């Protein structure tokens, strides 16, 4: 039977790119995300690549809904072999003005949801002696930028959690790795361009030139396909010993 992957936030941006490459490689996909056309995306990709797909719009702010999302994956696809914690949000503001509810929301979606999803998947992965957990952190999981206190905290937290999961998963062939991309042109970044322009009093073009790509040695957005192919490698049968690692795809940002 082909392997099943749950990808959170896979009806948009990076998650959708990862789902497409996994479907192309024969994986059954549990799509997830809040986009209104989520079910349609899932069935179109399923038809195109002739793989079974499911869809859920579980709210990641709700830990019970996350557990249910994992249960739905197993009941609809037969197993959960790969868990890709990808969903995430951003909010940009100086600390003193940062709304508490946005801080808490970012920690909940970007970090706590990773824990709840892995926790729910754990018993299945342990039982089948196969599990691949891939957490989409960020270069902000290993480096900081101003005005991103909640995001940087959550993404650093995810890198730490990835390592604990690797240690606890090792006896059961459950691996856990983090991918840390630099800037990728997705809806999340389009919103940030606007927010950064406001926070720094710059035009949107100036934000790209003076802020976003300034820290990358390669002055290009990271292609979604590069992240998706890295995830595919980490999900593979032969990736048993690749665990507890942080893979930067950041155009040389963290080389400095
Ligand atoms: P995106 O905005 O295109 O997609 C985010 C997805 O998360 C969407 O499907 C959305 O519906 C889902 N989501 C958000 N809040 C949710 C909630 N409460 N419940 C359920 N689903 C929810 O974003 P993206 O740029 O593709 O980002 C994907 C991941 O990659 C995020 O974790 C992000 O932090 C990380 N990342 C992005 C970049 C970048 O430059 N775009 C760089 C590094 C890391």
Automatic annotation (TrEMBL):
Keywords of the record: Oxidoreductase
One Pfam short name: adh_short
EC number: 1.1.1.30
InterPro entries reported for this sequence: 3-OHbutyrate_DH (IPR011294), NAD(P)-bd_dom_sf (IPR036291), Sc_DH/Rdtase_CS (IPR020904), SDR (IPR050259), SDR_fam (IPR002347)
TM regions (residue ranges): none
Enzyme's top EC category: oxidoreductase
GO molecular function, one term: 3-hydroxybutyrate dehydrogenase activity
Keyword Cytoplasm recorded: no
Family note: Belongs to the short-chain dehydrogenases/reductases (SDR) family.
UniProt name for this protein: 3-hydroxybutyrate dehydrogenase
Lineage: Bacteria, Pseudomonadati, Bacteroidota, Flavobacteriia, Flavobacteriales
